[in-house]
Design a protein that fits this description.
alpha+beta; Barnase, Chain D; six-stranded antiparallel barrel; six-stranded antiparallel beta barrel; 16 strands
């Protein structure tokens, strides 16, 4: 391997059972790898399906959208929560649709006082099941907006099969790999089953930055990148890192950043992944600062909610630091082991930028917190925020 082709990745053996049981020392280094192909990939947008809200009594924004759809052919509704009800009318669980568009309606044949409403929507990624089943003796579904605002009810839900093709990603290729250990022995023996592996991104000093992907090694060929090197094929079973990860990892290539605000060079997706990288590099051995400590929040780049959490992590724990990636996470961090516990003082510099920006980012579900809501949250948690 040439000097300009130092390894960016390290391949480890992977044992799912040992990892689940919390065992130590089961991972073996199988290879160092110069680079990859097809590693990064954003998930395709959720397929849109057609649904029917059967026996629907619309209210609020759903009723308004339905009126518009009758006049214009269709109308946007946004985020819709279907609260599945039990036999006594109690909520059992929620199932959500996003980017909902109302297409039309017709009289319900079982009850002419109700409507069968046709909508087009995408499933929310956090849904607990592929399709919500109406419970026996249930009253059906309560329909809600993202903040719980009433949108009516329906007796059942039908899904129109859209026959969409399955999305298949190409396998990941690990380039310029120097195999060792059990992998080297398997290659030398000509074995077809090369085993399960985990790929790590490493920095210029060889330190782990973050886990990249897990999967099964399925093939290999000699590599054009050097004598004795091989190119491996890995079929992932875990999610691939998003395309934004490539830029974030380059910013962490010299190790944990020592320069503040490097995250500001990333877009929203990059800042989201930056927070995951910062969490993966959290120093759990570092003791919390004493209560009453004063921290300085650099607000020059806080133009969206992810920027706020990047800046907050650096205010508490220095460049590359982490102190939550959402309000619930900050609540957990305030309990200890994340660098600070309340009460403390937070001096928010250039706060006017966040005041004008936060809470405005478009979302398909619940909007992010506004500047005033964050101040109220901090006050509740005994954090003295001083605007500068």
């Amino acid at each position: 391997m040439g000097a300009t082709e130092r390894p960016k990745y390290v391949l480890l053996s992977y044992d799912a059972e040992a990892e689940f049981n919390g065992e130590d020392g089961y991972e073996e280094t199988w290879a160092s790898c110069t680079d990859t192909e097809n590693l990064f990939g954003d998930p395709p947008p959720p397929p849109r399906g057609t649904y029917e809200l059967l026996g629907c009594a619309p209210e609020g924004e759903l009723e308004t959208a339905l009126t518009r759809a009758r006049a214009d052919g269709s109308a946007p509704l946004g985020f819709l929560v279907l609260e599945i009800l039990g036999a006594r009318g109690e909520p059992v669980y929620e199932w959500c649709l996003k980017d909902v568009r109302v297409l039309g309606d017709r009289p319900c044949p079982r009850d002419l006082s109700l409507r069968d409403v046709v909508i087009e929507a995408s499933q929310h990624a956090d849904n607990p099941s592929d399709y919500p089943q109406r419970r026996p003796l249930s009253r059906g579904f309560r329909l809600l907006g993202p903040a719980g605002e009433p949108r009516g009810s329906c007796r059942d839900l039908a899904h129109v099969d859209d026959d969409l093709p399955d999305h298949a990603d190409p396998p990941v290729r690990l380039l310029g790999c120097a195999p060792r250990g059990a992998l080297r022995a398997a290659l030398d023996a000509g074995e077809e089953d090369l085993g399960h592996a985990k790929l790590l991104r490493v920095d210029a000093q060889g330190g782990t930055v973050q886990a990249a992907v897990e999967g099964e090694l399925t093939a290999w060929i000699p590599s054009a990148r050097g004598r004795g090197l091989v190119d491996l094929t890995l079929e992932p079973w875990s999610d691939r890192p998003p395309t934004a990860a490539e830029h974030v990892w380059e910013l962490w290539d010299r190790g944990r950043p020592t320069e503040p605000n490097l995250w500001a060079r990333c877009g929203t997706a990059g800042r989201t992944f930056w927070l995951a990288t910062a969490l993966a590099n959290q120093d759990w051995a570092e003791p919390d600062a004493a209560p009453g400590t004063t921290y300085h929040l650099d607000g020059r780049h806080i133009t969206d909610d992810q920027a706020f959490y990047c800046a907050l992590g650096e205010a508490v724990n220095g460049p590359g630091g982490y102190f939550g990636r959402g309000r619930n996470d900050v609540d957990d961090a305030l309990c200890g082991n994340f660098g600070a516990t309340s009460p403390f003082t937070l001096i928010w510099h250039d706060a006017h930028i966040a005041r004008a920006s936060l809470g405005l980012t478009p979302r398909v579900d619940i909007r992010p917190e506004t500047f005033e809501e964050l101040l109220a949250f901090f006050t509740e948690r005994r954090i003295d925020v001083r605007l500068a």
